[in-house]
Design a protein that fits this description.
The protein is mainly alpha-helical. The chain has three domains: about 110 residues, no CATH class; about 60 residues; about 100 residues, Four Helix Bundle (Hemerythrin (Met), subunit A). It contains 13 helices and three strands. The chain has a three-stranded mixed beta sheet with strand order 1-2-3. Helix 2 packs antiparallel against helix 5, helix 4 packs antiparallel against helix 5 and helix 9 runs antiparallel to helix 10. The protein is globular. The protein starts with a helix and ends in a 5-residue tail after the last helix.
Length: about 325
């Protein structure tokens, strides 16, 4: 029995130490250093398979990174799963996948570190864009919008009570279903009128702006910010529009706010050197954004590489 108590105390202490490590915040340089150390260990897995034990134990449940007044949480679930997969099969493909993922995280961390010095310039650029006349009428929800939301919640709550009241024996099914039908009709009428009013308001709003009205560095900055929050689908989406804004600003076509991604692609002549790259970008956008496929750091890094091929600097 004493050995059992000793073993349990060791396990509890180890779990507490891992939790403390996971919850401790790293500075951005410390985070980059931790990634470099992990990359170094993964690089020698094939020659030194025993390193996998230190690698598995050294990766915390998550990395908490404090940078520029914000705290970012980077989950390591997928990384630890891939390490476990390599430990079972020890194949080169899994090793290269782990390395690519870690190198992408490091590249994004380094890019975020270098972009903080340009924050003031980007903020000034955004302020100058928002100061334009076409943005003067942009605002948050009005008191009327908030009132509509409250009425909507009240109607759905009323509908829920009506459904529960069907269990009361002294109310006939006819009355219950009649109340439900009335509530549904009222909700449908309110929704129809709200949509009609919204459509009317949209017709008197200024026309949509072309993509290049927001300069491509702003699109790219927003894409990197989304990537830093591990919002990979949104990061790919914003990076695509950075490429469109870049091509439009360089005279590849005349600005028009009504085009779809496929229409932008058709505007480039087949002989254009940018045609294959833009086609690849468009297909990735359609799969990730419109097709609702999952994305990851590697998908975003591939999108940045496509932007570089267009001549859009991403460093």
């Amino acid at each position: 029995m004493p050995w059992l108590v000793f073993l349990m105390s060791i396990l509890i202490a180890t779990a507490a130490a891992q939790q403390k490590t996971a919850d401790a915040s790293l500075s951005l340089p410390q985070y980059i250093e931790a990634l470099d150390d992990t990359i170094a260990k993964v690089s020698v897995l094939k020659e030194q398979p025993k390193v996998v034990s230190d690698l598995r134990d050294g990766v915390p449940v998550r990395w908490r990174v404090a940078a520029d007044g914000n705290v970012f949480v980077i989950s390591t679930d997928s990384l630890r799963r891939e390490i476990g997969s390599w430990q079972r099969h020890q194949d080169d493909k899994t090793q290269q996948k782990i390395l690519a993922y870690l190198q992408t995280l490091r590249s994004e961390a380094a890019a975020y570190s270098s972009s903080t010095s340009n924050t003031a310039g980007h903020r000034a650029l955004l302020n100058s864009i928002l100061a334009r006349r076409e943005f003067h009428n942009v605002h948050g929800p009005t008191w009327l919008d908030l009132l509509k939301q409250r009425i909507s919640r009240w109607l759905f709550k009323l509908l829920g009570r009506a459904i529960r009241s069907s269990s009361i024996s002294d109310i006939s099914d006819f009355l219950v279903y009649g109340l439900i039908g009335i509530a549904v009709l009222v909700a449908a009428l309110w929704l129809y009128r709200s949509l009609k009013e919204s459509a009317h308001l949209e017709t008197i709003m200024p026309l949509a702006l072309p993509v290049s009205a927001k300069e491509w560095p702003v699109w790219l900055s927003e894409a990197r910010a989304a990537a830093s929050r591990t919002e990979w689908r949104n990061a790919v989406h914003l990076a695509y529009w950075a490429g469109i804004s870049f091509l439009e600003a360089n005279g590849s076509w005349r600005p028009d706010a009504a085009r779809t991604p496929r229409e932008y692609l058709r505007l480039l002549p087949p002989a254009s050197e940018h045609q294959p790259t833009l086609r690849s970008l468009t297909q990735k956008l359609e799969r990730v954004w419109y097709g609702m496929q999952s994305a990851d750091a590697i998908s975003f890094q591939e999108t940045l590489a496509e932007l570089e091929k267009l001549g859009c600097p991403c460093d």
